[in-house]
Amino acid sequence: MTAAKVIILMGVCGVGKTTVGRKLAAAVGGSFEEGDAFHPPANVAKMAGGQPLDDGDRAPWLAAMAAGIGQWLGRERPTVLACSALKAAYRDVLAGGRAGVAFVHLTGEPDLIARRMAARTDHYMPPTLLPSQLAILEAPDDALTVAIDRGPDELAADIRRRLGL
Ligand SMILES: Nc1ncnc2c1ncn2[C@@H]1O[C@H](COP(=O)(O)OP(=O)(O)OP(=O)(O)O)[C@@H](O)[C@H]1O
Ligand SMILES: O=C(O)[C@H](O)[C@@H](O)[C@H](O)[C@H](O)CO
C-alpha cells in the first residue's frame, strides 16, 4: 500500500478538522492546509449569512483543492488538509483516483459538536448550519473513522498511529 501523502480530515462543521489537523501535521513534520481558505468569497458570505452551500457552490472549491492536492503529493513530507468532504462525489473529485490520498472521518454526537461550535468565537460558520451538514453527510465506509470525544492531542496521536505515519 502506498503511504498516505495527503491526509484529508473530513466531517461536518465544528467536528475538529482544523484543531486536530494542525496537531497531526506538526506531529508528522508535515504541512497543514485549511480547506476553508479555498472557498470563493461568495461561499463564505453565503455560509456566514446562514445559508448552506449547494453542489454548484462547492464545485470551484473542490476543484481548487484537487489542484492543490496534485502539488502536495509531490512534497517530501505529508500534507494534512482540513476539508468537510461530505459527499462521496466530493471525495472522488478530491482524490481523483490518485494513490497516496487518505480520508480520515471525524465523528461525534451532534450535541457535542453543537456545543463546541457555540463556544467558538473566531469562525464565520454559524452553529445553525450544523443540521444541514449532518443531513447531506455520506459517511465513507472505507475511511479511518475517529470519534472526537477525546482531546485533540490524543486524537492526533491515534490517527498518526493508525495511519502508520
Ligand atoms: N477534541 C477536541 N476536544 C475539545 N475541543 C475541541 C476538540 N476539537 C476541536 N475542538 C474545539 O471545537 C471547536 C471546533 O473545532 P474546529 O474549528 O477545529 O472544527 P472544524 O471541523 O475545523 O470546523 P469547520 O468545519 O467549521 O471549519 C473549536 O473551538 C475547537 O477548539
Ligand atoms: O461543504 C461545506 O458546506 C463547507 O465546506 C463547510 O463545511 C465549511 O467550509 C466549513 O466546514 C466551515 O465550517
TrEMBL record:
Keywords: ATP-binding, Kinase, Nucleotide-binding, Transferase. SUPFAM superfamilies: P-loop containing nucleoside triphosphate hydrolases. GO terms for biological process: carbohydrate metabolic process. Gene3D superfamilies: P-loop containing nucleotide triphosphate hydrolases. It comes from the Bacteria. It catalyses: D-gluconate + ATP = 6-phospho-D-gluconate + ADP + H(+). Its EC number is 2.7.1.12. GO terms for cellular component: cytoplasm. One of its GO terms (molecular function) is ATP binding. It holds the Pfam family SKI. Pathway: Carbohydrate acid metabolism. InterPro entries: P-loop_NTPase, Shikimate/glucono_kinase, Therm_gnt_kin. Belongs to the gluconokinase GntK/GntV family. This is Gluconokinase.
